[in-house]
Amino acid sequence: MVKISIDEMDPTFLFIWKGTRQKNMDATEYRSHDYLEIAYIFSGEGKYRIEDSIYPVQEGDLLILNPGVRHQAIGCPEAETPSTEFFVGFSNIRITGCPDNVLPLPGGQYILHTAGELRQRLLKICSSMEAENAVRRQGRYFMLKSYLVQMLLLIIREQCEPMERPKGCAFESANRKYLVEQIVDYIEDHYSEKISLDQIAENMYLSPFYISRIFKSETGSAPIRHLINIRLEKARELLENGYTGSIQEVAAQVGYDDAYHFSKLFKKRYGISPSQARRSG
To answer: Is 66 helix (H, G, I), strand (E, B) or coil?
Structure first.
């Protein structure tokens, strides 16, 4: 397993590049370089020659091209969708037990096949780097470097065994409860707006998959289900307290554009229609 000290993770960011390789595109030059390159396959499929072996690549694959490794993108006319690839170039990393400027993969492989949360997080990081590079604001280099560090740590963590949990400590539990409280507060403050799981996750600086899993483990309910419940409770309060607006206006007050959809949710939750709730109030 890989071992790493956070103090050693201070790479020099060099460049990013994103492009789509067309089916009829000629093979690129067979080359190597003295810096590291990571290539993330955004979408589609393609082929690479790496050290005289041919490797198929597809959406979610991550190519690790260490210094001196010969590689070449080759044509893939049989691909239904040509690959869209995102490259990051960098240098100056030192990982315990490895030569300088080498990022290892298990068994000396060149390709890491990603899925689930790891794939989502890498995709988000690459997209953030692309956006940051495009705007060219002050501090751009350091923002790009920070995203690069996140990417490297995700790749290394994927290969590391989890650290043993200290006995007698409840920090993780406390952090999970705090996160759930933050999500609940956010929903309470924004239930009348058009919010989604992605927006909630972005506000927490975490992945939608992660916050959904934590929220459900702590409350037994998904974040969006909690949002729906809050909206319906607020709507019932409005109706029972004499709000005179139309059902469409009630729906809009709690974040719904579609009064019919709102009414269906309301009746499923309370067993009566919004109109009946108004009369009973």
So the answer is: coil
Would you give the DSSP letter of residue 27? P
The residues facing 113 across adjacent strands are 61
Looking at the predicted structure, is the pLDDT value of residue 159 above 50?
yes
Please answer whether residues 144 and 108 qualify as being in contact, where contact means their C-beta atoms are separated by less than 8 angstroms: no
Q: What's the full length of the chain, in residues?
A: 281
Give CA–CA dist 80/265, Å, rounded: 41
Q: Compute how many other C-beta atoms are within 10 angstroms of the C-beta atom of residue 120.
A: 17
CA distances from 112 to 59, 65, 201 (A): 11, 11, 26
pLDDT in tens, 84-117: 999 999 998 888 777 888 888 877 789 988 888 8
Rounded Cα–Cα distance for residues 96 and 100 (Å): 9
Phi-psi region of 175 (alpha: psi -120 to 50; beta: other; left: phi over 0): alpha
Handedness of CA 37, 153, 86, 27 (dihedral sign): positive
β-pair type (53-58, 84-91):
unpaired
Q: Find the helix or strand (DSSP H, E) in which 240 lies.
A: helix 223-240
